[in-house]
Give the backbone structure.
Amino acid sequence: MRAHVTALGGAVGLSVLAYLLLTGLSGDQGQVALLVVVWTIALIGLNLIQGLGGYPNLAHAAFFGGGAYLSAVLLDTGLPMTVAALLAVAGVMAAGLVVALVFSRTRGQYFAIGTMFFTAVATLVFTNAADLTGGPNGRPVALGYSLEATVVLLAASVGVGLALFHWASVSRFGDRLRAIRADEDLAQHVGVPTSRVKLLAMVCSAGAAAWAGVLFGQYNGVVAPSQFTFGQSFLMFVALGLGGAGRLLGPAVGAAVVIGLTQLLTLGPGVSQIVLGVLFILVTLLAPEGVLGGVSALARRVRAARTGRADRSVRGEGAVA
Amino acid sequence: MSALLVVEDVVKRFGGVAAVDGVSFTLDAGQVLGLIGPNGSGKTTLLGVLAGTHDPTSGKVTLDGRTASGRGAHRAVSAGIARTFQTTRLFGTWTLREALRLAHGERRGRPGWPDEQIANLLGLGDALDRPGASLTSAAQRLAMIALALATGPRVLLLDEPAVGMDGTEAAALAAAVRRAAGELGVAVVVVDHNMQFLMPLADTVLVMAAGAVLASGTPAQIRSDEAVIASYLGEA
């Protein structure tokens, strides 16, 4: 019960924070706030397949871009915005299903390579299908929602997304994904329909990315292929790991850190990548469960030190005979 | 009454090698079958085919008249066939209770015991809230069996469950398997090299050699079978 209250509190709090950031900041700072919020929404989806399920999905930027482009194209056909948005999300979810069907037999780095390949192909389409996508320089996005409505939707999506993730995480679906992450073969042998669970996670993940893409296009007014490259997919992968894969607030923390560093650290060409690279290595070494995992491990140690005894069960001492 | 588990002429090839080469047997509810044979004789592969880990190259496995083989591990579990592994695997840092809850969640209406009762049966009642990795290796082997039982199986496949156990631990394990077979009516297939453990436990014994059945019968018959003594058991 307490966990639900904390999670819902976090969802509402971050939703309000997103609204305040989007309405309070302008110019470059506003752009950073937009990207952090949009990435948070996309990463909440990634947190299912990658965070809970342990599958390094490098197709996420392609799904994100797919939502942005597809909704822009559909909007041009005269469809109402909400219909265009829903069709775009559904279309990307179908693409996610195909990607999952093709690559769900691969694991670990092979899944990463396969999904990376998908993103590379998607970027080629975004760049070269110039009639629809505007080519390398991108295309304008017609205004479907007013700016105010888009801001409200962005903020609300953060809250609703977090609440949905929490629900999924504590449900059987979440347990099954964690089992797949821990030991997929064993999971199958206790009856988890692993293929079906992975497909569902991947499709939901793609849907969240697509919805983030739709709102990004609406707010930004223009979409370009450089925003949806393999590099972006990789940064999303890194952001979730940095923030805390599988943890409710991992997406928000990861998005803030990665977007913040890439956008604010304009120290010169390449410098932000170097800082980000060093940071990622440090977090991997010192806090393999991400910033949030590191913080909670630290809190546990402080508490253990206060009560004067190490947490034996966690450290695996004193085995049962 | 026809048998619960019917294995019909199962063949499993890996490339040109027939790891299992035409094995047939039947097993009734509540019966314990001991599966023995030299290393490489195909025992684990046969368990794998029964549990859906491997698809058979030919032949089939039916449970209560319904085909249970060749449809993947999770469908074998849904049909009511669960297995353990030679190496211990328990979802890493999960506690035993969490792992049992997951397995229990996949039971879907099949009858079975509550998780605590399963843990108590195997002497793991005090270990429920420990991470699997913190248990002794003997306790981890028992925990794998608990996990398999939590799925509510009708057929339980145990792959060398007594490895690394001393005589007392093995006897306790044998008693637990007997109870599961007797009280839940689970049919059990046990692979093991420890004859002191296996022979008293098994109702029937199947001896494999080079992928095929060398002999089958009661433990007493097997002990005195000359072909089995020559190829596997050795002279006393």
Observations:
- The two ends of chain B are 39 Å apart (CA to CA).
- Chain B has a mean pLDDT of 91.
- The longest strand of chain B covers residues 17-27.
